[in-house]
C-alpha cells in the first residue's frame, strides 16, 4: 500500500515540485500551504511521514513539530531555508527526525524519506543473513557492509557507491556523478565530488591512498572495481 506523505510548504512552486516527485516515486500526498492547515492535516489524517517547512504563515514549522510530536511518533523531516535553522532544529529537541536544507535535490529528499520511514518501521530488518566478504550493498535497506560489518555512510556516500557499483568497471565522470547523485538542481563545484569520494574511501577502503574498490581513472573519473 502506498505511504502517504504530508507536505507543509507555503511556497507553491516548491510544494508542486516536491509533490510531483513524491508521486513519481509511488507515494500518496497531502498538501497544506499554511501552518494551521498543516497542523490540522497532520493530526487528523495520520500521514506516514511529514515534510515540514520552517517558515509558514499562521503557525511556524517548529510549533507544528512540537504539537504533532506531543501526540504522534510520525517521522518529521524539516525543510529549512538556511543552515542556521538547523541549529534550532537540533538544539531545541523539537522531536524532528531529520532535516534537509534548501535547495535540496529530489534524489536526496527521496533518500531521506526512505531512510526515515525505514527507521520508523517496526518490521524487523531483513538483514539477518550471512554477509559475504568484501563490499556488499543492500539497496533495499540502503545499508553497506564490509566483510559482514555495517558501514556508517551518509546518504550521499551511499548514493555514490551504489551508482558506481551498479556497473563495475564503467568509468563515470565527475559531471555524471554530480548530475545523478547531487541532482540537476545542485550547481556545485565538481571538486565536491572528489571530496565526497575521498570521505567514502576513508570508510570503505583498507588503505584509502591505495583504493581497491573505488578507483580513479585519471582525467576521466571514477569506477568501481570488481574484487
Ligand atoms: Ca516557507
Give your account of this protein's structure.
With 227 residues, the protein is an alpha/beta fold. The chain is 40% helix and 19% strand. It contains 8 helices and 10 strands. It has helices spanning 12-24, 35-44, 61-69, 83-91, 106-120, 155-165, 174-182, 191-204; strands at 4-8, 28-32, 49-53, 76-80, 98-101, 135-138, 143-146, 149-151, 214-217, 221-224. The chain has a 5-stranded parallel β-sheet with strand order 2-1-3-4-5, sandwiched between helices. Helix 4 links the parallel strand 4 (76-80) and strand 5. The longest helix has 15 residues, at 106-120. It is elongated. Mean pLDDT is 86; it is low at 123-131. The structure holds calcium ion. Calcium ion (CA) is lined by residues 10-11, 53, 55-56.
Keywords summarizing the entry:
single chain, 227 residues, alpha/beta, 5-stranded parallel sheet, 3-stranded antiparallel sheet, 8 helices, elongated, binds calcium ion
Amino acid at each position: 500500500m502506498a505511504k502517504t506523505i504530508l507536505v507543509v510548504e507555503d511556497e507553491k512552486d516548491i510544494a508542486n515540485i516536491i509533490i510531483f516527485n513524491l508521486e513519481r516515486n509511488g507515494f500518496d500526498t497531502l498538501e497544506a500551504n499554511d501552518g494551521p492547515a498543516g497542523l490540522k492535516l497532520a493530526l487528523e489524517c495520520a500521514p506516514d511521514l511529514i515534510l515540514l517547512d520552517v517558515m509558514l504563515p499562521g503557525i511556524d514549522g517548529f510549533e507544528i513539530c512540537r504539537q504533532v510530536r506531543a501526540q504522534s511518533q510520525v517521522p518529521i523531516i524539516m525543510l529549512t531555508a538556511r543552515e542556521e535553522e538547523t541549529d534550532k532544529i537540533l538544539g531545541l529537541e523539537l522531536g524532528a527526525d531529520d532535516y534537509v536544507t534548501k535547495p535540496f535535490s529530489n534524489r536526496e529528499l527521496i533518500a531521506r524519506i526512505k531512510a526515515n520511514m525505514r527507521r520508523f518501521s517496526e518490521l524487523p530488518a531483513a538483514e539477518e543473513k550471512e554477509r559475504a566478504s568484501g563490499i556488499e550493498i543492500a539497496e533495499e535497506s540502503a545499508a553497506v557492509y564490509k566483510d559482514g560489518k555495517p558501514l556508517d555512510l551518509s546518504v550521499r556516500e551511499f548514493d555514490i557507491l551504489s551508482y558506481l557499483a551498479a556497473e563495475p568497471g564503467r568509468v563515470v565522470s565527475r559531471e555524471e556523478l554530480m548530475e545523478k547523485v547531487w541532482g540537476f538542481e545542485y550547481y556545485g563545484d565538481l571538486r565536491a565530488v572528489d571530496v565526497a569520494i575521498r570521505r567514502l574511501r576513508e570508510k570503505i577502503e583498507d588503505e584509502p591512498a591505495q583504493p581497491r574498490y573505488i578507483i580513479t581513472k585519471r582525467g576521466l573519473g571514477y569506477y568501481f572495481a570488481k574484487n
